# Entry
Amino acid sequence: MSSAFPVPPPTASIATNWYKVAAVEELADGELKRVPVAGKVLVLVRVGDRYGALDNRCPHMGGPLAEGSLENGRLVCPWHGREYDPLNGNCDGYAESVRAYPVEVRADGVYAAL
# Structure
């Protein structure tokens, strides 16, 4: 007996590689760092004891987010003031978000997964 619903094909797994992007205490709270890694450029942001790793390009107009600032808990693009959550890249009120990458703090440094 055949099913009326087709079975979807298995999804291909995507390999994830972890890259050391900073020493644990390299960034002060509220500090941003431009990080070239694996052919990409990220902005690493420290918020308290948490870190965010986002694409360095603002999806609005391509502004370099590492040249922006952290204001009231938001990452602010230096070109047009678009604001993003520095840990997950979400932009309130807009469909455009910045791609965020998983981050782990390990004994020997801060790592981002790409």
Residues 5-9 have pLDDT under 50 and may be disordered. The two ends are 43 Å apart (CA to CA). The beta strands are 18-22, 32-37, 40-47, 50-55, 69-71, 74-76, 83-84, 100-101, 103-106, 109-113. The CA atoms of residues 24 and 107 lie 8 Å apart.
